[in-house]
Amino acid sequence: MRASLKTRLDRKFPVTPFSTDYRKQQHFRGESQALQWRYTEQAMDILQGWLAIARKGDSSPDAESRLRAVESTMGFRFPDPVRFLLTTADRPEGFVGESYIAFFAVDDLAQCLADVQRAAPGFIPFASNGGGEWYGVDSRLNTPAFVLLPAIGAEWSAAMFLGSGWEEFWKTLQRGDLFERSYQVTS
């Protein structure tokens, strides 16, 4: 029997409990906890909407094997939330708070990577903001950072820092402050 979307998401992202009973039992003290919960709840609503519209079925073995082949070529494994979206939905896109994001199809990842590697080696794109920039990760680091680079004229000097992990990246999208923090790697 197929697991529900909620069950699969709970397994994929166990950090935050999403059950209705858990929500009812929680009492948040302080505005920051309430704000954090609201971000998480909004993220789940957006993800569920994307998956309901763009559903191909359960994570298809074909999409998973194609993604593994691309990752093998790149020498980099995408963070789990990105992998989940790339293999479960057919190019999900939409607004996350104040920012637009359109994930690439698995088959397009290799071409996007090839387009950007000369100018910004180590940048691994996985989505677009619809305005000429690509969301991606800096694979040169032990812990990849989420960054935004222009699709044309991509070079590290133009990179904007979006977060050191998925949660920080997602919050940056929600706030819409994509161009607030320039990105520089220090050796």
Give a structural overview.
The protein is an alpha+beta fold. About 45% of the residues lie in helices and about 15% in strands. It is built from 7 helices and 6 strands. The chain has helices at about 5-10, 20-25, 30-55, 60-75, 80-90, 105-115, 165-175, and strands at about 95, 100-105, 125-130, 135-140, 145-150, 160-165. It has a 6-stranded antiparallel β-sheet with strand order 1-2-3-4-5-6. The longest helix has 24 residues, at about 30-55. The chain is globular.
CATH architecture label name of the largest domain: 3-Layer(aba) Sandwich
The outline comes out as globular
The biggest sheet amounts to: 6 strands, antiparallel
The gyration radius over C-alpha positions equals: 17 Å
Round the mean pLDDT to the nearest integer and report it: 75
Attribute tags:
single chain; alpha+beta; SMI1/KNR4-like; 6-stranded antiparallel beta sheet; 44% helix
What's this, in brief?
The protein is 44% helix and 17% strand. By secondary structure, it is of the alpha+beta class.
